[in-house]
Write a structure and sequence with these properties.
The structure is a homodimer. Chain A is an alpha/beta fold. The first copy, chain A, is built from ten helices and 13 strands. In chain A, strand 1 and strand 2 form a beta hairpin. Chains A and B meet through helix 8 of A and helix 8 of B.
């Protein structure tokens, strides 16, 4: 038997056929068209899934269940998307709608939680019971695994670690609070600080690397310039790692997971990011140096974590 | 059968005989004498427990097990206190030592975790699976209950929510970080701010209430003066509630517990504290207004939470 995992995003719908060993047999993808009516999006989700099954060269009879990873808040027990900001869905019975097209059990879960489950079952946190997966992207996605299972609290809305205030009264966040971790340690925050520094420091390599064009600045720019010795960029990177470390230290003091997995584009900076980050955390965590603490690792499944985690969903 | 719960504190050792229904039959207490050798403290713990059993008018044969709630970091599986700052214990095999005096199974757990278990089984969080107990005292104690059990991570050192930075780079904390929640929302923080305001505002009622004597200022002073209409005190209380709210909102966004219980002396301010606190949290939590969110309640067991929770400890 195989499992279908669907990663529903603001930009694209990705579906994969996943083996019981968590390998992806085949994938398919199409644009979400997020502004469309929800029924069209769900029909496209079903078609993308059917396409993946065909690509895998198997029959639908060999599929046991379908899992959907969705942004926003999800009501697992009702199989609904309660609220998804960037896909314009509110209280939509997604699982029921999906079964109109594919007559299989359909499960749904928050996308960051799916990614965490994927890494826990088949990726960087394989073999440990308690882990946290942090995805650094436009925002900060996060999923918490406790005892091998997704933990999201009594209402399924927990593990929103990006919306933990670390600078009370600080930069305004999309959630309405001021000073959320996401406003200091996401890709968006890094780009904001890089643009600010480029303006204030015309001599910085940042400006050369982007041909003086601010719109070319991305979450990699400051890291690239810092590695080439640019002091302005080094300061941006240092501050970014400090804020990233503040949040992860908070998470460790609260959850004491065995492994913290970092995903998203920024995690590709590898040891240049991870090494000083580990140092910061080791210096600031509540437990003394002699107490074992979380291992900080890069994601192993990358963009596939969401598909694999969704495929693993069950009752 | 009955259970003994011991609450080991920096100031006193408290022991109670607890029924299976979580009622306390009898209690006994003596000073900790924290600077003494650990073996003397443990002998006194045993004697206090024996005293409580005698007061209860039962025999030791009717005791099933002993639980100890200890400050600091505990190694449950080894029955050891790994590190307790204010009792000068490091890697002490407390459970084994206790069994020299009382031949019963002995269990140990962090004291804040015991208080959380007590409230969960028999207090303000009775009947729900996921809860968080916050004790506002000298510091901020915290315990997390998930699925009816104490959650403390892979190394047993988790749920240290007081050491979550909410003001990066802010007030220095005893743990070495800057800007921990504990440095803004504990009794100590409240007293610090009250003293500061009393000095800067000689006309404030705070000074009258304490006969101009700073050493009379306690965690109740600002609340008392604020209730009498003093503007300076009102500002202290407002700021305190804001910082308390920032931390609890972070906890809700992370854990989404069904109930958050507030304990410690400051929680006796009741609705004067809780009502604006709930308003702040409702405005700032990540989930939308229509999503159910944690109920914020005052502790029901008060100082007995630790004894009852310790008595509930088992393998």
């Amino acid at each position: 038997m195989y499992f279908i995992g669907i990663d529903l995003g603001g930009t694209s719908i990705k579906a994969g056929v996943v083996t019981p060993e968590c390998a992806i047999l085949a994938k398919s993808q199409r644009p979400t068209g997020a502004c469309r009516n929800y029924s069209e999006i769900i029909r496209d989700m079903a078609e993308t899934a059917i396409e993946a099954v065909q690509k895998a060269g198997i029959g639908m009879a060999e599929i046991k269940s379908i899992g959907i990873g969705s942004p926003g808040t999800v009501d697992k027990s009702k199989g609904m998307i309660s609220y998804a900001n960037n896909i314009n869905m509110r209280n939509v019975a997604v699982c029921k709608e999906m079964r109109k097209y594919i007559k299989k059990p359909v499960f749904i879960e928050n996308d960051a939680n799916c990614a965490a489950l994927g890494e826990s079952e088949a990726g960087a946190a394989k073999g440990v019971k308690d882990s946290v997966v942090i995805t650094l992207g436009t925002g900060i996605g996060s999923g918490v695994i406790i005892g091998g299972e997704i933990y999201s609290g009594f209402n399924g809305a927990g593990a929103e670690l990006g919306h933990m205030v670390i600078v009370s009264g600080g930069v305004e966040c999309t959630c309405g609070r001021k000073g959320c971790w996401e406003s200091y340690a996401s890709g968006t925050a890094l780009i904001r600080e890089t643009i600010k520094a480029a303006i204030n420091n015309p001599e910085s390599l940042i400006n050369k690397l982007t041909s003086q064009n601010m719109s070319h600045i991305n979450a990699k720019t400051a890291f690239d310039a810092a590695k080439m010795g640019d002091k302005t960029a080094k300061k941006i990177v240092d501050d970014f790692i400090m804020y990233l470390g503040e949040g992860i230290t908070n998470i460790i003091n609260a959850f004491q997971p065995e492994i913290v997995v970092l995903g998203g584009g920024i995690s590709n900076e590898g040891e240049y990011l991870l090494s000083p980050l580990r140092e910061f955390i080791d210096e600031h965590r509540y437990t003394k140096k002699e107490t074992p603490s979380a291992i900080i690792k890069k994601s192993e499944l990358g963009n596939d974590a969401g598909i694999i985690g969704a495929a693993l969903l069950k009752n």
